[in-house]
Specification:
Oligomer: single chain
Strand content: 15-25%
Number of helices: 9
Structural class: alpha/beta
Distance between the termini: 24 Å
Helix content: 10-25%
Low-confidence stretches: 1-21, 36-87
Largest sheet: 8 strands, mixed
Shape: globular
Length: about 550
């Protein structure tokens, strides 16, 4: 980041115009609305503001999501998905005791070493693929990572009774698991937010595709066409459907500039929490191998440089980030990056400030405000980038890239191999659909919102049926590197790039794309006056 801060000065101007859109819940019995105000900010930045207008309801009912109820739900869910679900009691985790590894041994299963002076060291990435080795060694070289016992910062949580439930002042994760899939389908305890913010509303910020590349890493190193001494976006301007002129002075600072605007608005509006729809770490996720127990964490500079050091300040500090995995969090063109450690950061790690919340690949959270409630369903839709094992820059199951690593397995979390990968993601998707079939009918919230990485166009043959069956009100997504808002009231038109698909294919469900977070160059050319929908976030 420039020491003099000049990259940010031109981006704190007053919005020039706005367009109001009213999004109503699918169910006609509810009168709450979501107000979406699209704000154009000069100097190549777009922000979209969303707030929940709180109309009082005559009464609210509630089906408890306390741990014991969640346990029963998980047991029933197991039957719905052919006994393949990871059903368990998430508040009664049994951690395995794994002996530390001997001198020189592979330490992937233990992440610790017996010999005095030796540490468990893992290889970084080579050619955009994790090297795949972990060994007990006395020291590490550049881009190798040391593994340490995971410790979480203390987070004060206030508990009280309201809305016929037990309220928590913060989203509370279940106990730390051993593996990344262990808490799949978990329901967090209810979270409540009292009072209101600016405009007598509560505020939530939304961002996706936001995490760029730290200096020296693949895509921002001396061997790349462009390299910088700061976190910079992955350059997607030179290939694929995103080919365009690179905007010097803007594109390389995209994540910082979006973050500057986010922090400016956060100071003013004081959001309750942030929703992030994946792709937090370009190009290839946390650059070491998956499969190590989550009780240990890699001492990686990525989480601090890309997340903690970028998103902070008044209105941001202490606010939790709730999210899902994107295809680049798995590795982009393979699944071997430490995606399970992105989940594990929920329970802390080196440099953690305790804001990260992603306890599983898919999970749910209920939020109560003074007179409105929301059920969030966080889902993994990376099945749409994992269809076979062919070589491709956009295939998580790419057998060619997987074959470049010492190990093709993510251990007990899976996948076990490139050949296993497509079915592993298909099975994950089937489980989630069964999970939604169980969760949504019992929802008593005023709003049902799905947060996932891929927009519903990628599941155009499935999402419309799911949404209409259960009345999903809103989908929050990313993946496309731009900002989009689609509502049932929009003028009828084709969806760009989807060959004859009309924008009303989701019926009464609205959906937004907030993929302009700046972790990767925007899909279209950003304009100086901000008259575009490229870089930005949603509020």
């Amino acid at each position: 980041m420039m020491a003099d801060g000049t990259h940010a000065e031109r981006h704190c101007l007053i919005p020039q115009d706005a367009r109001d859109i009213m999004v109503e819940p699918v169910s006609s019995r509810r009168t709450n609305r979501l107000a979406i105000v699209q704000i154009t900010v000069p100097a190549l930045m777009v922000g979209v503001l969303c707030g929940t207008l709180l109309y009082k309801q005559p009464q609210l009912s509630h089906l408890s999501q306390r741990p014991e109820t969640a346990k029963n739900a998980e047991a029933k869910l197991t039957q719905l998905v052919n006994n393949k679900s990871e059903a368990h009691d998430p508040w009664n985790v049994q951690l395995e005791v794994i002996p530390c590894s001997a001198a020189g041994e592979n330490c992937q299963n233990s992440a610790c070493c017996k010999a005095e002076g030796e540490k468990c060291i893992s290889g970084g990435n080579e050619g955009g693929v994790p090297k795949g080795y972990m060994a007990c060694k006395a020291g590490s070289s550049k881009f190798e990572l040391e593994w340490v016992k995971r410790t979480a910062p203390e987070e004060p949580i206030h508990v009280w009774k309201a809305h016929n439930t037990t309220c928590n002042s913060r989203f509370m994760a279940p106990p730390m698991p051993m593996y990344g899939t262990q808490h799949n389908g978990v329901n967090l305890p209810d979270t409540c937010f009292n009072g209101t913010g600016k405009w007598s509303m509560h505020h939530v910020f939304v961002i996706s595709d936001w995490g760029g590349i730290a200096p020296g890493y693949n895509g921002n190193s001396a061997t790349d066409k462009r390299s910088y001494d700061h976190v910079a976006p992955a350059d997607h301007t030179r290939f694929g459907g995103h080919t365009r002129e690179f905007k010097n002075g803007t594109d390389e600072w995209a994540q910082w500039r979006v973050a500057d605007q986010l922090k400016k608005y956060a100071k003013e509006f004081q959001p309750d929490y942030f929703l992030q729809a994946g792709d937090a770490f370009y190009w290839g996720g946390i650059e070491t191998h998956c499969g190590t127990p989550l009780t240990y964490a890699p001492v990686s500079p990525q989480t601090k440089a890309i997340f903690e050091d970028v998103y902070n300040g008044p209105g941001v500090d202490g606010k939790q980030w709730l999210g899902v995995l994107g295809n680049h969090d798995y590795g982009g063109w393979m699944y071997l990056s430490a995606w399970d450690q992105v989940i594990g950061y929920t329970w802390g790690g080196p440099g953690s400030t305790g804001r990260w919340m992603m306890p599983a690949q898919y999970w749910a959270a209920k939020v109560y405000y003074d007179d409105v409630s929301v059920d969030y369903y966080f889902m993994d839709t990376n099945v749409f980038d994992a269809e076979d094992t062919r070589p491709s820059g956009h295939n998580i199951c790419n057998a060619e890239k997987v074959g470049m690593s010492f190990s093709a397995s993510c251990g007990k979390s899976g996948p076990e191999s490139a050949q296993d990968c497509p079915n592993w993601f298909k099975d994950l998707w089937i489980k989630q659909k069964g999970w939604l079939d169980y969760q949504l009918p019992k929802s008593t919230a005023d709003w049902q919102i799905v947060v996932t990485h891929f927009p519903p166009t990628w599941g155009k043959d499935e999402w419309p049926q799911i949404a209409s069956k259960h009345g999903i009100d809103l989908m929050i997504t990313g993946h496309k590197h731009s900002q989009e808002v689609t509502t049932p009231d929009d003028e009828l038109k084709f969806v760009d790039g989807w060959g004859g698909l009309y924008n009303d294919f989701m019926g009464g469900t609205s959906w937004i794309v907030s993929g302009g977070g700046g972790g990767v160059t925007s899909q279209g050319h950003p304009e100086y006056d901000g008259n575009d929908d490229q870089y930005g976030f949603m509020h």
